Amino acid sequence: MSKEAAQATDPLLIAGRRYRSRLIVGSGKYRDFEQNRAALEASGAEIITVAIRRVNLGQNRDEPNLLEVISPDKYTILPNTAGCYDAADAVRTCKMARELLDGHKLVKLEVLGDRKTLYPNVTETLKAAATLVADGFEVMVYTSDDPLVARELEQLGCVSVMPLGAPIGSGLGIRNPYNIRMILENATTPIIVDAGVGTASDATIAMELGCAGVLMNTAIAEAQDPLLMAAAMNKAVAAGREAFLAGRMPRRLHSSASSPESGTFFPPL
After folding, report:
1. In Å, how far are 29, 193, 233 from 176, measured between CA atoms?
2. Which of 6, 47, 56, 154 lies 20 to 30 A from 35 at CA?
3. Strand partners, 46
4. What is the pLDDT of residues 194-217, one digit of tens each?
């Protein structure tokens, strides 16, 4: 089966919408909007997340507008609340995004704890999530890799829970796969690893764990060749998903012969 056929029969489902690609990319740290557009195309992603407080979507009329380069008719624009440090600010930012994008309901919520680690402030995240869901938003939420917090965010009605693999922008990879697996065991909504991916193998590991997708920005934007890395991430996410669906062989303490020992011409000694 071709990659395209596999994607068509195994879509990513977010808030009732179907996506062929399980890779979500960001819009920060690129040289310019044109490089961002080219990397997006190379990645095969259909969702691009945009920091409302940092990227112009029309709120600044005298500055370049991302939507003039990356069309919302072709891609799902996922506004995010990067740079918000309390629930009230995050909710206000999502409402601004809804106005800028003509009633757009799908948002990525992130409420940060401090500027050094960019770890999520879980208390404020829960508060903001509850408010946004009650207001009709479809909330994809960045959070810690705590299984209990992930479950609570699902119960609040978030359409996707997005635990970090490692700190934002660190490139350290999936530092605690066991917590991710515990989150996945009880998940009823898509679990998407958000933050920490540094290279293609990190994305593959996330997908092999059973995650529904991977979101990344710095890993592509800060690569020496962003377009080539975007293409690599496209393949890595697809390969990891296929490996998860295929089911890996069991791990064994000792070797297991690749060739059968029964029915051979010479009997074993």
Report:
1. 26, 11, 21
2. 6
3. none
4. 999 999 999 999 999 999 999 999
User: Percent of the chain, pLDDT > 90?
Assistant: 77
Q: Which candidate in 3, 29, 74, 108 is catalytic? A: 108
pLDDT of 128-162, one tens digit each?
A: 999 999 999 999 999 999 999 999 999 999 999 99
Instruction: Please report the pLDDT score of residue 12 as a whole number.
Output: 96
**211-238: string of b/e by CB count within 10 Å (b at 16+)?**
bbbbbbbbbbbebeebbebbbbbbebbb
* Residue 166: pLDDT over 90: yes
Active site residue 95: no
Q: Return the structure tokens found at 10.
A: 């195994």
